[in-house]
Amino acid sequence: MSKTNTPIETDAVIIGAGPCGLFTVFEMGLLDMKCHLIDILDRPGGQCAELYPEKPIFDIPAYPSISGQELTDRLMEQIEPFSPVFHFQEMAEGLEKLDNGRWRLTTDIGTVFDATCIIIAAGGGSFVPKKPPIPGIEEFEGTSVFYAVRKMDQFKGKKIIIAGGGDSALDWSLNLQPIADSLSLVHRRDAFRAAPDSVSKMRKMVDDGKMNFHMGQIKKLIGENGQLQAVEMLDADKQIQTLECDTLLPFFGLTMKLGPIANFGLNLDKNVIPVDTEKFETSQAGIFAVGDINTYPGKLKLILSGFHEAALMSRQAFKYCRPDAKLRFEYTTSSSSLQSKLGVNE
Question: Minimal CB count within 10 Å: which of 61, 68, 80, 165?
Fold first, then answer.
């Protein structure tokens, strides 16, 4: 369902809320440009938050060692003065050039933006769910099979089966159990890749009869017209069991694909986007790419490289967003106006 059909007007839409996307907000904010960010994940941080939140990073300036999650937290703190607006669990799906030179961007759930600039900071692409190898699953997607929970109320009173053994599977089992008519967790083994506390809480719910746990793998979906009625599971004893349900939530992790960005009319080179090294602009004026998603001679796929790219890119974006204004170069250490924007004089 669409969030809004009325376009949201802004200076820039940033596709990707990883470290480079977040630092872009900072550089744009120093020049008084407002940003909205879109990310398929349910929180900021991109790969840092999703793939290695506790893994140390050793090449961020001034930090001998910093975890992916801590870096995300510090960047969020840094951009707070600029009040960016986040649109999580959305994917940029459509892009068109308007007659007035601005860009109309639409997400997969119908959110519409009217922006002067589009900044692609999508890392290696969008995170998309890994689908289980179940024949005919596409028929049920979006009706009774879902790879993410966007609104919990949607699952109230449902007979839910959650498949998977990671944090997402365990977390949503715990969160949805109170509102579901029934809930079962299916995993191929009695061991989990999730927080021990979540596993303990799940096992207690099973012991208390509040939810079910089945060790096995779902092999077949039963239903018609996109509506599930049951699933067939191959259990640990290689026997087929039929489990009644009307909703299936498979959580088998995420993979990265370029996704709809590939259809934006940009010149692509092996699933990355060529840019110049002065403005980090793509083949389309007003569309920029920073971070791992771009390529140019001498490119290094480092977070600090993306920070540098964001700084230079923002100056060209300013010329599009404020064509009648003079661009002044100032240092945050000595500029009272910049310090005022950052709130350091308050």
Answer: 61
